[in-house]
Recover the amino acids of this structure.
């Protein structure tokens, strides 16, 4: 069996959906954060697959950018979560509803 | 020469302004200023009249140098003065009769605390009336028309501390506004269809092409007539005139003779060319097809004449009798206009100005001698106490009744002749009115001047001072002789360029009415004789009015003036009630209910619904966000 583009894309979709479900359903902020990374990586996988099958390097260049930005985002995001935890003593999203009027 | 007319117009205004601003404290100076201004106006008018007499273009009319008053878009209003036989004659009447009334007022009003204010009002009134007479376009006429309304308000309500006077002033003003509204609509209609407000241009257009007004000719004519209906107090807007008697008597004389009520008839004659347009109605009024505006005017005039004459029979206030007689004579004039006879109408207006001013000033003389007693049944026997007042009053009465050779006979005959040519119904009506006129006027003379002295005040009455008697004597002259001056022929030149202005000699003039329309002259004369006989039979030596005993219901209706005031009051209060109810409903349900409570209520409700969505839960937002992306993706991909 040869592995084609559609297989890569299928894996990417599964990863993305798992990440989305994790973001929507999990309660713990850290887990949500990890799910978010999962969604990013699903996108990366799709980009690399397109790049490979179209014989173009543009997709891979974009992936590097995404990884760089994700790294920066993780550092900022984790810092925020730590700060939030220190202030509120919790990392559960149900308890963080102060945006509500 | 012609620009001197501006002086005639502005002298009275000048005096009014000076009095109002500077000389209010000095009563004598104010009166002299006002009298001086109107007399100067009279002399200048006389000079213009004589100076222009020979000019050939008098028939077409002369215009003084105009100035631009208003320019808005297509509307270019230039104020100028129009001089033709009509306006020249009228300025003479207004300033002439006006001057006598000014002089008389000097005696009548002496000692009144508002002496200066009174003369300022008189001057303003004269100015406004001269403006109407000399106007060369509709807008200028309307401006002065309103000024007349305003100054009449000032003068009728001169004794404003008396509620009756204040009410009468308000009533006169408001009733006039009603007519003026139609007048204004008519002016706008003419301007919209013909694009001009100038009399000469409008006249030229209509003479060249009578169909130029199209379907609007009759409506336009009647709307313009609405103005005359208000000012000249025609049915159904006649109710203000008798109440206007609350003003000082010289003011009544001025209103009834030279100014105000004359304005309506004068205006109809001035714009008579309008009624030469082909009669036509817009589709909505097609049921009126076959009736033209002039017929409506004639019947309204005739109806007013009869109505007022009948009411006058049972009035007991000397001024009210005269007021109803003015109404009736105005109806006569309006009827004459409607019978295609503007020159008889103007003729009667002129003679009427003389003898009605005379009658009112005579009544004023009686009233001031009796310390403001106006009930004729409390007078009696004034003939010997006030011989000059009696003689002049009698001359005025004879002129009003139309006995030859008094002036009223000739002008009334001209109207009767016009009626006999055009409509049998109106001719009979006019003859009936002539008879009633004689009847109620001689009732007044018999009861007030002849017979026995009926009250304490009458017993002590004595003749008025010379300053009041002299105007009476001067006015008695034209009342007697104006019929022989060829005024009718002079006026005819204004309306009919072919008419000769050659006046026949005195004897011919005297018997002319019997020559050209014997029927009218004989009927007119017969009406006078009948009227006099009835009055003699009923009222010679009467102490009490016999009519209420014989016809109680009729007399009651007449004394209450056919309940017009009551009906109007009821109508107004009903309308008022209905409008108030509607406004209340609108306020309660639409404004307070819908706008005030409804709009914020629905906003709040919407807000409450939206609040349910805002949970503050991060994951709900994320879900909505994803849903949004899905919808956008779907939309983009399936486009």
């Amino acid at each position: 069996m040869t592995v084609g583009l559609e297989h890569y894309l299928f894996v990417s979709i599964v990863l993305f959906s798992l990440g989305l479900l994790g973001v929507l359903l999990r309660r713990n902020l850290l887990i949500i954060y990890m799910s978010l990374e999962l969604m990013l990586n699903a996108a990366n996988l799709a980009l690399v697959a397109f790049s490979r099958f179209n014989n173009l390097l543009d997709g891979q260049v974009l992936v590097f950018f995404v990884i760089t930005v994700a790294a920066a985002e993780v550092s900022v995001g984790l810092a925020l979560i730590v700060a939030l935890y220190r202030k509120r003593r919790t990392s559960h999203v149900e308890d963080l509803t102060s945006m509500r009027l | 020469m012609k620009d001197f007319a501006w002086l005639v117009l502005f002298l009275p205004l000048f005096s009014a302004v000076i009095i109002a601003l500077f000389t209010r404290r000095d009563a004598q100076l104010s009166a002299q200023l006002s009298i001086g201004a109107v007399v100067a106006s009279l002399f200048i008018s006389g000079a213009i009249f004589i100076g222009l007499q020979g000019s050939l273009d008098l028939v077409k009319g002369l215009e003084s140098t105009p100035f631009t008053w208003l320019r808005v878009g297509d509307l270019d209003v230039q104020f100028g003065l129009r001089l033709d036989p009509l306006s020249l004659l009228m300025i003479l009447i207004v300033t002439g009769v006006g001057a006598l009334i000014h002089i008389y007022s000097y005696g009548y009003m002496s000692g009144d605390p508002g002496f200066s204010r009174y003369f300022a009002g008189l001057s303003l009134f004269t100015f406004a009336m001269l403006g109407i007479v000399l106007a060369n376009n509709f807008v200028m006429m309307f401006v002065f028309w309103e000024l007349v309304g305003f100054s009449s308000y000032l003068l009728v309500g001169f004794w404003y501390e008396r509620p009756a006077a204040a009410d009468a002033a308000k009533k006169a003003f408001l009733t006039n506004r009603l007519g003026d509204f139609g007048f204004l609509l008519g002016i706008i209609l003419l301007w919209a269809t013909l694009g001009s407000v100038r009399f000469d241009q409008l006249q030229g257009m209509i003479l060249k092409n009578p169909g130029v007004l199209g379907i609007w000719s009759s409506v336009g004519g009647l709307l313009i007539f609405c103005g005359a209906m208000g000012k000249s107090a025609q049915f159904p807007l006649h109710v203000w005139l008798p109440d206007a008697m609350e003003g000082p008597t010289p003011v009544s004389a001025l209103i009834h003779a030279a100014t105000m009520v004359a304005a309506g008839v004068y205006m109809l004659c001035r714009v008579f060319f309008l009624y030469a347009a082909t009669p036509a109605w817009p589709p909505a009024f097609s049921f009126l097809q076959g009736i033209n505006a002039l017929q409506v005017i004639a019947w309204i005039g005739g109806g007013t004449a009869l109505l007022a004459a009948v009411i006058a029979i049972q009035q007991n206030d000397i001024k009210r009798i005269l007021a109803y007689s003015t109404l009736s004579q105005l109806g006569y004039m309006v009827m004459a206009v409607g019978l295609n006879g503007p020159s008889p109408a103007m003729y009667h207006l002129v003679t009427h100005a003389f003898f009605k001013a005379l009658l009112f000033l005579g009544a004023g003389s009686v009233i001031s001698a009796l310390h403001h007693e106006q009930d004729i049944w409390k007078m009696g026997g004034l003939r010997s106490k006030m011989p000059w007042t009696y003689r002049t009053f009698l001359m005025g009465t004879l002129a009003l009744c139309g006995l030859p050779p008094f002036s009223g006979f000739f002008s009334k005959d001209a109207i009767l002749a016009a009626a006999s040519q055009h409509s049998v119904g109106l001719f009979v009506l006019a003859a009936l009115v002539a008879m009633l006129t004689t009847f109620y006027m001689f009732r007044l003379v018999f009861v007030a001047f002849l017979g026995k002295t009926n009250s304490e005040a009458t017993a002590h009455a004595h003749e008025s001072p010379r300053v009041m008697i002299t105007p009476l004597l001067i006015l008695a002259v034209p009342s007697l002789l104006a019929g022989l001056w060829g005024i009718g022929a002079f006026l005819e030149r204004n309306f009919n360029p072919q008419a000769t202005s050659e006046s026949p000699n005195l004897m011919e003039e005297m018997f002319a009415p019997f020559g050209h329309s014997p029927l009218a002259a004989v009927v007119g004369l017969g009406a006078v004789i009948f009227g006099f006989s009835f009055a003699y039979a009923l009222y010679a030596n009467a102490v009490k009015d016999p009519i209420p005993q014989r016809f109680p219901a009729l007399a009651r209706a007449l004394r209450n003036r056919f309940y017009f005031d009551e009906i109007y009051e009821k109508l107004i209060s009903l309308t008022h009630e209905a409008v108030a109810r509607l406004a209340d409903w609108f306020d309660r349900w639409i404004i307070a209910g819908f706008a005030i409570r409804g709009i914020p209520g629905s906003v709040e409700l919407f807000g409450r619904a939206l609040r349910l969505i805002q949970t503050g839960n991060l994951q709900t937002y994320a879900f909505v966000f994803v849903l949004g992306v899905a919808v956008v993706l779907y939309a983009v991909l399936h486009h």
Summary: Chain B is about 70% helix and 0% strand. The mean pLDDT of chain B is 83. Chain B touches chain A at residues 611, 614-619, 622-623, 626 (CB under 8 Å).
